[in-house]
Prior knowledge:
This is Glucosamine-6-phosphate deaminase. Helix content is about 30%, strand content about 20%.
Amino acid sequence: IRIEVVKNKKEGGKVAYRLIKEALEEDAEVFGLATGSTPETLYKELRESDLDFSDKIAVNLDEYIGLASDHPQSYHSFMQEHLFDSKPFKATYIPDGTAKEEVEVERYDKILEEHPIDVQILGIGTNAHIGFNEPGTPFGTKTHKVKLTEDTIQANKRNFDSEDEVPGHAYSMGIASIMAAKKIILMAYGENKAEAIDKAVNGPVTEDVPASILQNHPDVVIVVDEEAASRL
Length: 232
Ligand code: F6R
């Protein structure tokens, strides 16, 4: 794991942007994308750049179950607003939060098989989840339905009018699918991510700390601000 410590989230976005630019120069075609507050500055850099994604494919990590794609808090809406409206891709895939589990899991795994990910963008939960793979998720898991933990619901309620409105479940790409990406860029900012980053990088590789599996991946860059790096 290569660690890049930056001053703040804005600088982190610039570092991640340069890594994406390099990947494009090496003909990366399929980009695994994340939502949440962490990648916001990266997406801003991409929106304001002249990079061209019109022959590229985006495959997102996850979506809330029960939210239609046009719901303002859906990850579909997030991606439209933060990236896809200004940077069109040849194709974009996000799990369908209104589809039935059996159907959606199979559909999404097929998409991932057909479009192996070249570069995967990740954030990390305070409990070290990646995608919505919460602690305890077997490392071999592919796309699956997830019951969000109380930690995650608390962390995500800021985007909703009230806690009751945060969906309790999501569809998420599995850890096996994330690990199949050729290159992984994980970003983390702020003191509340420091413990998760330390455990992910220095702790034992264990399903209790989903991000610890990244120690077994050959090409991971972690971009952290000084606060998130403070326990390393
Ligand atoms: C989002 C995702 C999650 C987030 C994580 C951190 O698609 O898969 O793993 O990356 O919950 O969220 P933020 O960036 O909002 O702190």
